[in-house]
Structures are given as C-alpha cells and as structure tokens.
Design brief:
heterodimer; A: two-stranded antiparallel ribbon; B: about 625 residues; two-stranded antiparallel ribbon; 2 strands
C-alpha cells in the first residue's frame, strides 16, 4: 500500500509537469487538439491521485490507522512528499479545481493554446507539489512554480486593465513570497536544523527551543509575507483587479487553490513551530482579518462588475480563515482548513459561472443584466448554489468551516467572534444582490435586445461546474471526510491542542 | 425508531433532488413525486404517533469533530417535537394537495414542487433536531427554501426584492442566534436539549440572560417580531400555498417552537421572558392595527399572522404550553384562511384586493364555509378551536396582571387591544370578500375551485372547529377510535399541563366575568366591523374619510421607510464611499500606485545621475573621495 501511495503521490505532482515538458519538447508538432489531450490526461492523473489518496487516507483513519498514510522519498534525489490531515484536503482541492480549470480551458477557445496549456500545466504541477512537499523550501519552490505562470498568462490572455493588474500582482506576490522566504531561511538558520525538511526543523527545535523574540520576528516575516499572498488587509489590492483581469482557468486556480497556500503554510508550519510568535501576533492578525471581513465585505457590496464582486468576496472570505488561525485552536485552525477547502471550490465555481454568464451577456455590469433565469434556468440554479455555498449555507463545505471558526473565536474573544460573524450578514447582502440583479426581475435594456439569443449553460460547460458542486456537497454532507484527518493530526500539535 | 424518522426526513429531500434533476420540466411527474413524499411523511408520522409508545426517543450520530467541538446529527422525538411534527406533516400534506390545484397553470411546477419538498425536509429536520447546532443547520435551510419559494415568480420586481429581503432580515436574526448558540456551547459545554435540561435541573442558575437574549434574536427573525417583522408582509408575493405553509403555519412558528422547547427545559431566564412578553404583546397589538391599512387579502392575513405570532411569543412567558397550544390552533385556522384566500384569488383570476372581490359566499360555498369557520376560530368564538388557546393566554395574562405591577397591566392592555382588533380586521376581510356583491368582472364569474382545493379546505375547516377541544382536554372521540384525527401523542405536551393550569386560572377573582367580557367584546366588535366595513361599499371607508389615518396604518410603523432609508442612504453609500474613496483612492492609487510613483521618481533621479558625461563623472569622483575621507576620519 505504501508503494502504491508514493506512486500515486508522485504521479499527481509530476504528471502535469511532465505534460508541460512534453508540450515544450514537441512544440512544433503540437496541434490545438493534442495539447488539449495532454492537458486533460495530466489533469485526470492529478485528480485521480488526489481522490484515491483522499479516499484511502480517510478509510485508513476510519479503520483506526494512524493518519500519516502517505510518505515518499524513495527516489532519493526527488523532493520528499507526504500528506497529513492538513495537507490532504488541500491536495484534494488542487486536484479537483485543477481538473475543473483544465477542463474549462480545454473546451474554450484561445490564441496560442500550446503556451496556454504549458503554463496551466506548470501551475497545476506546482500546486500539487506545494501541498505535497514536506520540505519547507520545496513548498516554497513549488509555490513559485505555480505563481509565475499566472503573471504570464494574465499579460497574454488577460481582460481589461491586464497590464497594470499583472505588474501589480507580480510585484505584490513576488515581494510577499520573498518576505516569507526570508522567514523560512531565518527559521532554518536560527533552529540550526539539519535541512529544510519539516521534521528536521521540528527535531532541532525540540532540542534547542527558539527564544521568544526570534519567534516573534520570524512569525512576523511569515505572517506578512504569506499574508500578502492571501490578500490580508491591507496587502490585498492586487487581488480583485488581478482576478478580474486573469483568464478564467488561471483565476480559478489562483483564487481557488494557490491563494490558500499562504494560509496552508501558516497552519502547517508557522503556528506549530512558532506558537509564542503566533500568540504575540494573534491580536494584530485578528484585527487585520476583521478588516477583511467587514471592510472588504462592504466594498464588495458596492461592486457592480460581476467579476470584481466575486474577486472582492474571495478577499473578504479570507478574513475568516485568518481568524481561525488567530484563535490557535484545533477548532479554529481546523475550521480554517475546511473553509479553505470549501471556499476554493466555491470561488472557482463562481469564476467559472461568471465567465459563462458574461459570455452570454457580453457585459460585466450586473445592473445591465436581469431576468436571465427565464433563458438559463440551469445556469441560474448553479449560480444560486455557488452563491449559497459561498455565503455559508449548510449542505455545502463552507458552512462547517465558518461555523467551526466562529465557535473557536468565542474563546479567543467574544467581541471578535461577534464582529467576525457579521460576515454572514454582509456576504448574504452582496451574494443575494448578485443573484437578484443577474437572474431575477425584468431584463434590462441592454440585455433585452439580445434576450432571445441567450442559451442555457451547455452540457459541456456543465461538467466542471457539476464536479465542483459535487465536491462542495460531498463535504457539506460528510464533513468528517475532511475533519477526521484534521482532528487526528492537529491533536498532536501542541500549538493547537494546548491553548484550548 | 431511527430509520422511521430518517425516512420521514429524507423522503422529501429525495423527492426534491429527483424533481430538480430529472423532472424540472415535467407537467405532473414532479407534483406527483412531491405529493407522494408528503403523503408518505404524513402517514409515517401518524403511524409513529399512534403506534410508538416511547415517550421520548433520542439518537445521535457524530457528524464531525474538531478538537473538543463535536457536532452530532441527532433526533429528539419528545412530546413537544411530536406536537410540532404532527402540524408540519399534516398541514404540509394538505398544502401539497392544495398546490396541485392551485399551481395547475404554472409553467415552473417542477421548481415549485422541488422547493416545497425541500422545505418539508428542512422543516422536519428543524423539528427533529436534538441540539441547537443541528437546529441552526435546518433553521438556515428553511430560510433558504423560504427564499426560493418567495422568489417563485422571479421575473417580477416584487418577488426579487421580497425574497432577498426575507433572507437578509432572517440572517440578521440568525447572527444573534448563532452567537447565542456558540455562547451556550462555550458556557455549558453542550447544546443538546436533553443535556441542557439536566444541567438546568441540577443548577437553574446556569441559565444566563445574555445567552437567552442572543438566542431570542433567532426567534425575532424567523417569527418576524419587533424589530425584524418587515419581511413577512412582503413575503406574500410568493404563491399562496407557500404563504399558508411556510409563512403562516410552520416556518414562522418555528421561532415559537424553539422558544417553547428552550423554555420548557429551563434555558430561558425570566428576564428574557419579560422581553418576549412585551415585544410579543406589542406586535400583537400593532400588527392588528396595521392589518386595517391593507387591502390585499394576503397582506391582511400576513399582519394577522404577525399578531398571532406575537401572541404566542407573549404566551411563552405565561406558560410555554399555552404558546404551543396556540401555535397548533393557529396552524389550523391560519392555514385554512390562507388556503381560502388562495381559492378566492384563483377564482377571481389573481385579484387580491378585497374591495374588488365580494359576494363569494354564494358562488363558492365550500370556500365560504371554511372561511367562516376559520374566521370564527381566529376571533376566539367559544367552542371554536382558537377560543381554547386564546382564552388560556388571556386568562393567564389577566392573572398575572392581578398579582403583578404596572408592566403586567400594560401588557394585558395590549393583549386586550389585540384581541379586540382581531374581529375588526377579520370582519373587514370576511364581509368584503364573501358578503355583499361582487366588485369586479372576475369576482362576478367566480366559481368554486376544484376538489384538490376544496378537500384540504374542508379538512382544515373541521380542525378549526374541533381541534381545540380535543387538544385541551386530550379528548378521546368515540373512546379513542378517532384518535387518528389528532393523536394523543401529539396533544399530550399541551393537555398534560393545560388542564391543571386552566383549573388554577378559573379560580382567579373575576375570571368568569373577564371571559364573558372578552366574548362579548368579540361579538360586539364583529358587529361593529359589519357596520363600518360591511355593506359592500367597494372601498375602504377609512381610506375615503380619513386618508391620513389610513395612510399611517398602511405604512405599518414606518419600519420599511426607516430600513430602506438606512440601506439606500447609509449602508450602500457607506459601501460606495469605502469602495471609491478608501479602496480606490487611498489604498490603490495613493498607497500602491504612490509607492510605484515614488520608486519611479527615485529611479529617474538615479538614472539622471548616471548619465556618463564627464561632468557627472567628476562629481561622482569628488563625492566619493569626500565620502571616503568622512568615513575614515570620523
């Protein structure tokens, strides 16, 4: 079984990278159809890897096994991969959203498909690797692999305002990544660890604990570096315009999966290793995160552009994830992971459906739409589901995440809990407003001219949406599939289990 | 018993999913599936109520666990749950049948019946939940189904706004409710009703007012009480059967059900109950007044629902069994009234103005008789079902005022006002819709509705008449042979306490005189209503003679005006200000681009300095030498 796991894990990471290499190597022989075939095959391998490992992992845990089911560095020179309760959902998320995003790219038309799919596959491989790596430096490297294609794709296939958005995004994210790299290096140097391997750092820290002031400094570097990657207030302004300008598949992958990397490293590495630093910065983090929830939430309410609305809402939702981390408890951090999983799926779904909608309306402004449900009942139902998932309706994964985070916050501070909970009202306001503006009421003047020509979402377009909805509802109905591993692994991390 | 309860819960969900996926466009298959699932749930519920001898069943299944936070999906099927379950399954089934007739010409029947079945699932879940978190889950789901069904006629502006408003206002209530639940979990370590009951029994001081007040917010939102009542009247744009089921009989009563459940286990402190007492009474009185300012038959009934929910809220504080009793009776007669309204609206080709109807009693005898029975019941005429529950509430309030202070007397006055207003607005409705002559072409040609519609009406008419008697005294018709009409398992929760409570009330000073006076007032006001509103004028006399008064009533306390002003002028403007000034100007342009500009300027400056002319090279050389000297000697 061990053998099977490591093959699956490596296949999940390397299949997309290999696919990209194949496309580049056979560049001149590649037609639009063959690149699509390669991309689809690679994404399927990743999806299969993610789902099979997830299923196995859950079954093993349910049978009373010890969680750390997957581990592989048998090749010696390849980076070590492994999955625990925290990275498993993220890895699964990358597989699922990656498949949906690739599928969406495969069925859409674009110029220069070879380059497009090369970049997309690189990104996909980077994402799978970032969550599978157990070596902190490799986590970072894989993240960069995934990050760079976004900028390139934006400048080539992006929408309005792409140049400035791409430059801004590149500067912000490179800077954020650099600061967090400084943090990672400082961690390695100060602990005198044998390698960047996570286990090695833990061992070194057990032998010689880091003093409080260093913990504070390193945590600050990681928090603000990674925070920028996750659009923590006030380092968020790259996100909305960046996503709005990015091509859909990249926006899905970036907002859905890559953005979660910062949170993931905070939960997986920073807080467990630097609990003192995390406590020191807890309140700062909580207050900044509240700005994400409330301030960005209000800004989202004022958006008229559908894609900007979705982008801002994704920034706003990151606030609750940060709050979960700030609570430093199994409930809060575990809830944050569930929310990351759910949000990754729901925001990818929203980007996808927004694209489907605007392809039909030729218009981004929600006030210029209206009454679409008559022409597009299935699209309307799917969009309502996506919005309901994202505003935390029970039955979708996000709800359990939001609920756990809020539950954990009461212990941190009832006031923060109450302020964080206003998010459920704010998100309902902008979410339902979007549904009402796009699908309900009378068609606007703009839309009524082309109303008859608007067709419902096609069967081809439905497939990625159905995959995302199915995943959302699966975890929504069976939250144990994610929380079981989280609970098992986080119990053993003193930073989470001791405080509360 | 677990799988029986699960089948009641999941059969409608299954029906909703199958309809939604496969029979969206079907003409009748969806309706058939939905109605059969409701029939199944009803039959199963009745079977459980009649056969199962377990007084209290509970089960639990771990849904997920993170650290110390474990959330169980569990059932609790106890007397109060049985009572509520009976109402949900019974009224739900009747409304499903009614819908077949009412929605026959609708072109989105699939969506409608899927929504109705989904509502049955959520409502059943809410009733059966064994802990507050689970209740919250279904609480949100009923909110969603209500949203979806209010928005059924989605292409109208009214439906668009009303559905949004209902959801958001409910979310405001849920915000407090959720905080209350989290508070409860942190303070007591559990949210399981049975465990809370044990804790409260051992130590009544464990109940806290803050916790109760937060949870009360959930009640205010769902049951549309002050100050969150604004969504209910707007919600009437949904199809009429939906208004009957969701916005009259069951979902809005879920708030009361939750309060009853928590009060009966000692969770709610007297301070919280005082707040509910006065808020409820205030609502009962104001909504009664506001009902006089509406001409739309459904809106009149909506305000009447508000009033009665207020009455139930106040009853929670007088004795929780009274609230549950009135909830049950209200479910019967208010569902009947809404279905009557639906039948009349359908007959008058979707005319909803009571002054455009008229003379329907002769044209629609079954609808008319049902309307009469339900009206007499809601006015609390003796021997009709509403009388039993309302009499108990009024007597209790009277008793409390006798021994209490000014506060209790004030509330009693409000309640007396409310009960005097009921015959007035109900008389106004009844005389204008059913008596006199028709005032529109459509009403002229009105015909009695089909069997799908009249059968549920007749059933509800019967229950509006006899329901109260059998519930109050746990009466066994024909020695228990007719128990299936109202299973004693469902009535036990009320009848057990009510008998004793009521006997005590009868011994109060002047109780008899008080009761008699109440009945007299009801009759007199009903007669007065005939004088004022009867006589088939075809217009509202108040509107004609005293337009300012009528206008004030119509505005229902200016709550909507205030909220709309807040949303449009404060909230949205503030959001736009943040989006444009702070987000765009301060952060995006000034800070981010500003840093960019500063970098560019500095870069330009450096570039200027490195222009590689001999002049600048000399400057660099001299500057470097000076710097070197400074570094060396200082």
């Amino acid at each position: 079984m061990q053998y099977f796991h490591s093959i699956m894990l490596n296949a999940g990471v390397y299949a997309p990278l290999l696919g990209a290499v194949v496309i580049v190597a056979l560049w001149t022989y590649m037609g639009a159809r063959s690149v699509r075939g390669i991309a689809m095959a690679a994404a399927s391998v990743s999806l299969l890897s993610a789902l099979s490992l997830w299923a196995d992992y859950f079954l093993e845990l349910s049978a009373g096994g010890k969680g750390v089911a997957v581990f592989s560095d048998y090749m010696g020179f390849l980076p070590a991969f492994g999955l625990n309760g925290i990275s498993m959902p993220m890895y699964a998320l990358a597989g699922i959203v990656g498949f949906a995003a690739t599928y969406w790219a495969v069925i859409s038309k674009m110029e220069n498909p070879r380059l497009y799919f090369t970049l997309l596959l690189f990104m996909q491989g980077g994402l799978m690797g970032a969550f599978a790596a157990t070596n902190v430096l490799w986590m970072y490297m894989f993240h960069e692999f995934a990050l760079v294609p976004t900028f390139i794709a934006m400048t080539i296939w992006g929408g309005a305002g792409k140049r400035i958005a791409a430059i801004q995004m590149a500067i912000y994210l490179t800077l954020g990544a650099l600061v967090s790299l400084a943090g990672i290096i400082a961690l390695y140097m100060q602990t005198d660890a044998a390698s960047f391997e996570f286990g090695a750092i833990v061992q070194a820290m057990a032998a010689a604990p880091l003093d409080a002031s260093w913990q504070g400094w390193i945590f600050a570097l990681l928090l603000f570096g990674l925070g920028t990657l996750v659009s923590l207030f006030p380092f968020y302004s790259w996100a909305p315009r960046g996503y709005a300008a990015a091509p859909t598949s990249f926006a899905m992958l970036h907002a859905g999966v890559l953005k979660k990397f910062g949170l993931y490293v905070l939960i997986q590495v920073a807080v467990p290793l630097l609990p003192v630093g995390a406590i020191e910065w807890g309140w700062t983090l909580a207050v900044l995160a509240l700005f994400n929830v409330i301030y960005i939430g209000l800004v989202t309410m004022a958006q008229r552009d559908l894609k900007l609305m979705v982008s801002y809402s994704s920034v706003a939702h990151m606030g609750l994830c940060f709050l979960g981390i700030a609570s430093m408890s199994v409930i809060g951090a575990g809830g944050a992971v569930v929310l990351m999983f759910g949000h990754g799926l729901s925001v990818a779904l929203l980007f996808l459906l927004s694209n489907v909608i605007t392809n039909r309306t030729e218009q981004w402004d929600m006030l210029q739409m209206g009454g679409l449900y008559k022409q597009t009942p299935v699209l309307a139902a799917m969009f309502v589901m996506a919005i309901m998932a994202s505003i935390g309706l029970p039955g979708f994964a996000n709800f359990w995440g939001e609920l756990s985070v809020l539950v954990s916050l009461w212990n941190f501070s009832p006031a923060i809990c109450a302020l964080g909970a206003t998010g459920i009202i704010i998100s309902a306001v902008y979410g339902l407003r979007a549904v009402a503006r796009i699908f309900m009421g009378e068609p606007s003047e703009w839309i009524s001219k082309r109303f008859g020509a608007i067709a419902d979402i096609s069967v081809k377009e439905r497939i990625p949406a159905i995959i995302l909805i199915a995943a959302l509802m699966f975890v929504g109905f069976c939250p144990k599939s994610v929380t079981k591993g989280l609970d098992a692994d986080m119990k053993d991390i003193p930073a989470y289990s001791e405080s509360k | 018993m677990e799988w029986e309860l699960s089948s009641i819960l999941f059969a409608p969900l299954f029906a909703a999913a199958v309809i939604g996926i496969f029979f969206r466009k079907s003409r009748w298959t969806g309706a058939f599936l939905s109605v059969s699932s409701a029939a199944f749930a009803f039959a199963m519920t009745m079977w459980l109520l009649l056969e199962a001898s377990v007084p209290q069943f509970q089960s639990s299944f771990e849904l997920f666990k993170l650290g110390s936070f474990q959330l169980d999906f569990g059932y609790l099927f106890d007397p109060v749950g049985k009572n509520m379950m009976f109402i949900v399954a019974f009224i739900g089934f009747l409304v499903h049948v009614f819908s077949v007739g009412y929605m026959k010409d609708d072109d989105a029947k699939g969506r409608y019946f899927a929504g109705l079945s989904f509502f049955m699932f959520s409502m059943t879940g809410l009733v059966l939940s064994s802990n507050l978190f689970m209740m919250f889950v279904f609480w949100e789901l009923v909110g969603f189904s209500s949203y979806a069904l209010i928005g059924h006629y989605a292409s109208t502006e009214a439906a668009r706004e009303a559905s949004k408003k209902a959801f958001i206002v409910n979310r405001v209530g849920d915000f407090g409710f959720l905080l209350g639940i989290i508070f409860c979990w942190n303070a007591l370590g559990t949210t399981n009703f049975v465990e809370i009951a044990q804790i409260m029994k051992a130590d009544p001081s464990a109940a806290s007012t803050g916790m109760g007040l937060l949870i009360l917010c959930g009640f205010l939102g769902k049951s549309a009480q002050f100050p969150l009542q604004v969504w209910l009247a707007d919600a009437m744009v949904g199809p009429t059967p939906v208004s009957a089921l969701i916005h009259a009989a069951t979902m809005v009563a879920a708030g009361v059900f939750m309060m009853v459940r928590l009060t009966s286990i000692g969770f709610v402190t007297p301070e919280v109950l005082d707040v509910v007492f006065v808020l409820g009474a205030l609502m009962a009185f104001c909504a009664g007044l506001w009902a006089l300012g509406q001409n739309d038959i459904k809106k009149i009934l909506a305000y009447s629902t508000l009033a009665h929910l207020g009455l139930m809220g106040a009853a929670c504080s007088l004795g929780y069994e009274l609230a549950m009793f009135h909830l049950t009776m209200h479910a019967f007669f208010k569902a009947a009234l809404f279905l009557v309204a639906g039948s009349a609206i359908l007959a008058c080709h979707h005319e909803q103005d009571i002054y455009k109807m008229g003379g329907l009693f002769k044209k629609m005898p079954i609808t008319g008789v049902t309307a009469l029975f339900a009206t007499l019941s809601i006015m609390a005429v003796p021997s009709f079902s509403g009388y039993y529950s309302k009499e108990g509430i009024m007597l209790s309030a009277y008793g409390r005022a006798l021994s209490g202070g000014a506060f209790d007397a004030f509330v009693l006055l409000l309640l007396l006002g409310a009960s005097a207003l009921t015959p007035l607005y109900m008389g106004r409705l009844f005389f204008n819709v059913f008596m006199g002559r028709p005032h529109s072409e459509a009403a002229q040609h009105a015909r009695e509705s089909s069997l799908w519609i009249t059968l549920p009406l007749l059933v509800l008419a019967v229950y509006s008449f006899v329901g109260g008697f059998s519930m109050a005294y746990d009466f066994k018709w024909l020695g228990g042979k007719m128990d299936f009409l109202m299973p004693s398992a469902a009535t036990q929760f009320v009848s057990e306490i009510w008998d004793i409570h009521y006997l005590g009330l009868r011994k109060l000073d002047g109780a008899h005189a008080f009761e008699t006076a109440l009945v007299l007032v009801t009759v007199v006001v009903f007669g007065f209503a005939y004088i004022v509103y009867g006589g088939s004028r075809g217009c509202d006399i108040l509107q004609k003679k005293l337009p300012p008064v009528y206008g004030a009533l119509r505005k229902h306390g200016w709550f909507d005006v205030a909220y709309n002003w807040y949303v449009a002028k404060v909230q949205q403007r503030f959001a736009i200000l943040l989006a444009t000034f702070v987000d765009l100007m301060l952060i995006e342009l000034l800070s981010v681009r500003g840093v960019g500009v500063v970098c560019a300027v500095i870069g330009q400056g450096f570039k200027k300095m490195h222009d590689a002319t001999s002049n600048s090279q000399v400057k660099w050389l001299v500057g470097g030498v000076v710097l070197l000297f400074v570094l060396i000697y200082f």
